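Exercise: predict the fold of this chain.
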Amino acid sequence: MERIGTKKIKVGNTYVGGDASIKVQSMTNTDTRDIRTTVSQIWALEEAGCDIIRCAVPDMEASEALGGIIKQIKIPLVADIHFDYRLALKSIKNGVAALRINPGNIGNKDKVKAVVEAAKDKGIPIRIGVNSGSLQKDILESYGKVCPEALVDSALRHVDILEEFNFFDIAISVKSSDVMEMIESYRLLSKKVDYPLHLGVTESGTRRMGTIKSSVGIGALLAEGIGDTIRVSLTDDPVEEIKVGRDILKSLGLLEDGIEFISCPTCGRTQINLIEIAKEVEEKLAKVNKPIKVAVMGCAVNGPGEAKRADIGIAGGNGMGLIFKKGEIIKRVKEENLVDELLKEIEKL
């Protein structure tokens, strides 16, 4: 699929927008002032494949802690700041790779200018983050309700403030907890700006519902070529956000990294314990970093043919199983040996 063209901005040691790959982000849920715990969580996120991490900066102590955190991590850190421009200045001084701050909410033009000049000096971008729960009062009154047009107008108002100071290293998000509202907001915004867009369904829920809502919202936009960086917001361990985000990209062919796992839903022809076998295979392949497609099918008659686009797979019979490559059977093994034999074949690829 062809992505809609956007500007390319540098975020620490990586890039967002333009021809850069789509980045998967998360946000720590630790107390930023607790450096050890925050770093530990970021290490876990790095291992899971997180590209950019964001930390809340509620006060000056948290802003001071950022310096100690940044020294111990590999991925770029974004400071998430609300209202207090002094926290932005301190965060910049302590080495953050970007700011998430809405310039219209941090005070008069002198305060905005101070932040902009500091960001320019360090060469760091600013993400404007508008969501359905933080619209300016006059915009909300003008439209009478939260709607895509209101979200976009709010974002553009913040953009105008930065552009007035000749600042153009900008990324934008217009998140909503309503999936269709989120989709329409980004569609509208993408027609009005060429800045990189950060996609997300805010407050999407727990792992199950949040995964569904985020996959629908983020996936629909990515399929249309909209979006340069994503965050799946879950009421769960942030590592789960990275797993889901990367899987969304994989499902759309936007990330060729690690295993793509497919399995059939089972039916009355299934004669092996396919559900447990599929779970075991998926778990054991979770950290295998090979760009291949692996299939687990329940029917030995139709399975190899149905999954012939898989690089390798297994299909079950009555106590027996087949291992196949690109639809061609290469080995017959007992059911209890299926998983082990599959893993051996994957090691050879």
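Check your answer against the key: The chain has a mean pLDDT of 91.
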